[in-house]
Specification:
The protein has two domains: 240 residues, P-loop containing nucleotide triphosphate hydrolases (Rossmann fold, 3-Layer(aba) Sandwich), CATH 3.40.50; 213 residues, no CATH class. The N and C termini lie far apart (65 Å). It is built from 20 helices and 14 strands. Helix 12 crosses helix 14, helix 13 packs across helix 16 and helix 18 packs across helix 20. It has a five-stranded parallel β-sheet. A three-stranded antiparallel β-sheet has the order 12-14-13. The protein has a two-stranded antiparallel ribbon with strand order 2-3.
Length: 475
């Protein structure tokens, strides 16, 4: 974690803090003020989340302006956790606390015994330290074994052994929620939290305090509580108890990218660099579109379990594995520049298997269904990119005896050589590549067009292992 150095210009005592004119604000007021600034200036609440500009973001802006605790409801891979963590960007960069406080005590309104004693004993000379906004965030992944002591707190036996009385507030070990006082606390997968533990959060959301082990103390903590949940969790793994749901001010439904362009933008943002070692990888636009279209179509396929969702991570993983397969092919062929081809799409079986649940009545049909989805994506992109381009002369060349071989062991030069044999192939290749003359991209475009002609039933394709042959349907 990055360590931020406190600016020397910030006050170091309570008296200096008062003299500086610093004002204390509740966490929700602070977030509201900074959200108002961003909205007024036309800035997004935070960077790196795409496709929510007209759907999720307006709802989140409303929730912040209303001062609501929020629960994000959506399937896996819909940026719920990223949005929650990014909320810290709306906090002030630095926040003063009483020095030594475990729960970020406000110097003006201390709540812990330690801070109250410090202010009472030292007055304006009370030492002040500053906390960076990145440290004002607490997070807990809800699991069935999560306890109240994890979230709220427990008696510290070591402090008791040191001679303090059990009734002494200083014997308490604060849990995650109090330690996030004056910050944002997030609970991921909230329905997985057992119902009796969820009850323990009711006071946090309504009375804004915590009670520990029956002690006659009340810690009026100040937190924004944000949670995430999968819709299916309401009835499957667990549920959010009704009183707790009622205390969240806003429930915001997230979704997957609504169009291919947004999916591609996310892929480009999230995927790791494709080039490895001395091999440079260029991902053609049409191959990116195939990856994104595959995910989009999987989300509407009756063969895919939609309850488990089709995460954007599928697109990112497929992009990375497609690039990796192209690199492996280049290393074997001794090439230094490579572009993924249609024949590389077979590698997606490994990156798709753990992220998509195929539903089939027949045993062993999963691979066939996967191949059908890939072919459907290729066909869709082919029709979009070659709309209005005549392929008649290309098909005629194959009817006159031309045969094309593709596969992992076929070098780019062999596919490019087809352009000399079939001059009419040049126009559709130029259209598909957007004028890119990089040999590896041109070779990929040639194979893409051949596969498109096969899927539109204008060429035959004989596949054998990692190789395939395209020929006329009349031969």
């Amino acid at each position: 974690m990055t360590t931020h150095e406190v600016p020397a210009s910030l006050p170091t005592t309570l008296g200096a803090l008062r003299a500086s004119g610093w004002q204390s604000l509740p966490i929700k007021e602070e977030l509201r003020r900074n959200a108002v600034r961003n909205i007024s200036e036309g800035k997004p609440l935070f960077e790196g989340v795409m496709g929510y500009e007209d759907t999720v973001m307006p709802q989140l802006e409303n929730a912040l302006l209303a001062g609501h605790d929020v629960v994000f409801l959506g399937e896996r891979g819909q940026a719920k956790t990223r949005m929650i963590r990014s909320l810290t960007n709306l906090l002030d960069e630095w926040m003063p606390i009483v020095a030594g406080s475990e729960i970020n005590d406000d110097p003006y309104y201390p709540v812990s015994r330690h801070a109250k004693n410090a202010v009472a004993d030292n007055g304006d000379n009370t030492p002040i330290t500053w906390v960076h906004r990145s440290e004002r965030f607490g997070e807990k992944l809800a699991t069935p074994d999560t306890s109240i002591s994890d979230l709220i707190g427990e008696v510290d036996p070591i402090k008791v052994a040191e001679g303090r009385y059990l009734s002494d507030e200083l014997t308490l070990h604060y849990g995650l929620v109090p330690r996030t006082n004056r910050g944002i606390f997030a609970i991921n997968e909230l329905p997985d939290l057992s119902e009796r533990i969820q009850v323990g959060l009711l006071n946090v959301l309504e009375e804004r305090d915590v009670q520990i082990r029956g002690y006659k103390i009340s810690l009026p903590i100040d937190v924004l509580l944000v949670a995430s949940a999968n819709p299916e969790d309401y009835t499957n793994r667990g549920r959010i108890i009704t009183p707790l749901k009622d205390r969240f001010g806003s429930q915001i439904r997230t979704h997957y990218p609504l169009d291919v362009e947004t999916e591609i933008a996310i892929i480009r943002q999230e995927a790791r660099p494709a080039s490895i070692g001395d091999v440079s990888v260029t991902m053609p636009d049409f191959m990116e579109h195939i990856i994104a279209t595959f995910s989009q179509q999987a989300r509407s396929s009756s063969h895919v379990n939609q309850r488990s969702g089709v995460s954007v991570r599928l697109s990112v993983s497929n992009y990375e594995i497609l690039s990796a397969n192209a690199v492996r092919r280049a290393l074997r062929a001794g090439e230094r520049t490579v572009a993924p081809r249609v024949s590389d799409l077979d590698a997606l079986a490994a990156s798709t298997g753990g992220k998509v649940e195929i539903e089939s009545l027949e045993e062993g049909r999963e691979s066939q269904i996967l191949q059908q989805l890939i072919s459907q994506a290729v066909l869709t992109v082919y029709k979009e990119m070659t709309a209005g381009v005549s392929m008649a002369e290309v098909v005629t060349a194959f009817e006159q005896g031309t045969i094309a071989h593709v596969g992992e062991d076929v070098p780019s030069a062999d596919l490019i050589a087809l352009l000399a044999q079939i001059p009419s192939l040049q126009t559709p290749v130029t259209v598909v590549t957007g004028g890119d003359t990089t040999p590896a991209v041109v070779a990929s475009a040639v194979e893409f067009i051949l596969e498109g002609l096969h899927l539109t039933r204008r060429l035959n394709k004989d596949a054998s292992g990692a190789r395939a042959t395209y020929r006329s349907r009349s031969l």
